[in-house]
Every structure is written in structure tokens, then in C-alpha cells.
Design goal:
Blueprint: H1 2-30, H2 34-81, H3 85-104, H4 111-131, E1 134-136, E2 149-155, E3 165-170, E4 173-175, E5 178-181, E6 183-188
Parallel strand pairs: 2-6
Antiparallel strand pairs: 1-4, 3-6, 4-5
């Protein structure tokens, strides 16, 4: 019997606890004053203001990013558009030298002096190209290489091995590590 009594007592305790909880819930439901509702409304208004604030901040950041993107694109386009500017500025003194030489020439000018002047200008021009990373392709006497040469003709010449560059019709150039113009050459036959 003691087991039944214990079960009954536990049952009664559970019923008491449930009844107490129900009473508390009813009191809370009945006790909802207007102050709780107004407090919730204030919280809702505060949260709505915060959402509006974040929305405005997000829109501002999106606009700033678009402006940054547009500025960066313009900078890149200008960089490409005016990439050769510094190189051209370095060539202008050579153009000035050529103009001065032409203005001082007359029919009475000594051919040797003209040749020396043009040679000086040519050397200055080649130095400027060299400083910019432009190099001539050395071809004559070298084995033919499709990476650097374009064969226009073949000619028999037994003094050199076959496929050797005999003559250069147009000089080739390398810019840094890239061939920008192949040398047009005459190559020895087999």
C-alpha cells in the first residue's frame, strides 16, 4: 500500500504544480496592461528606425562602391590610353634633333657632316629604344629560328651550314621578352 500512497501523493503534487502554473498563466494573461503594449510599440519603432538606418547606410555604401568602380575603370582606361606617353616624351628630343638637322641643311652642306649628324641622331634614338627595353634581333650568321626570323628567300651558299641567315632585309625587334617584329631574312639552302 505504501506504493499506492506514494503514487497518489506524487499525483497530487503534479496536479498542484499544474494548477499553480495555470493560475500564473491566467494572471499574466489578465495582467497585460497597456504599458506592455506601448513598450512593444516603442521597441518596434526603435527597430524600424534601426532598419531604416541600416538600409540608408547600405544604399550609401552601394553608391560609394559604384563611384569607386567607375573611377577605377576610368583610371585603367586612361592608363591604357596614355601608356605610351612617357616613351613619346623620350622620343621628342630625337625629333627636335632631326628638325634642326633638316633646317641647317642646304645644297652646299658637306655630305660627310650630314652623315655624321644623322649617325648621332640614330645612336641617340637607338639608346632611347634600348632604355625602354627594345632590342634588335641579331640575325646575320645565326641559325634560322622561326621564333625570331621570317624567311623570305633561300640562297645557295656553301661557306655556311644550311639554314643559316645570310642577309637581313628588315631588322627584327624584341620588346622586353616578346618579339614585336620578326627579322625578314635570306637563309642558306640545304
Amino acid at each position: 500500500m505504501s506504493k499506492e500512497k506514494a503514487n497518489d501523493e506524487q499525483h497530487e503534487e503534479l496536479n498542484d504544480i499544474q494548477n499553480s502554473e495555470n493560475e500564473l498563466n491566467e494572471q499574466k494573461a489578465n495582467e497585460k496592461p497597456n504599458s506592455d503594449i506601448s513598450s512593444y510599440e516603442e521597441k518596434i519603432k526603435a527597430l524600424e528606425a534601426e532598419v531604416a538606418n541600416y538600409k540608408e547606410l547600405m544604399l550609401r555604401k552601394a553608391a560609394e562602391f559604384e563611384n569607386y568602380k567607375r573611377r577605377t575603370e576610368n583610371d585603367q582606361l586612361n592608363l591604357l590610353k596614355y601608356a605610351a606617353e612617357s616613351f613619346i616624351v623620350k622620343l621628342l628630343p630625337t625629333v627636335d634633333d632631326l628638325e634642326r638637322s633638316l633646317s641647317h641643311m642646304s645644297e652646299e652642306t658637306d655630305v660627310q657632316k650630314i652623315k655624321e649628324g644623322i649617325q648621332l641622331i640614330y645612336n641617340k634614338f637607338m639608346k632611347t629604344l634600348d632604355e625602354q627595353g627594345v632590342k634588335k634581333i641579331d640575325s646575320i650568321g645565326k641559325p634560322f629560328d622561326v621564333e625570331y626570323h621570317e624567311a623570305l628567300m633561300q640562297r645557295a651558299d656553301e661557306s655556311v651550314p644550311p639554314h643559316t641567315v645570310l642577309d637581313e632585309l628588315e631588322t627584327g625587334y624584341i620588346y622586353k621578352d616578346r618579339v614585336i617584329r620578326h627579322a625578314k631574312v635570306i637563309v642558306s639552302e640545304d
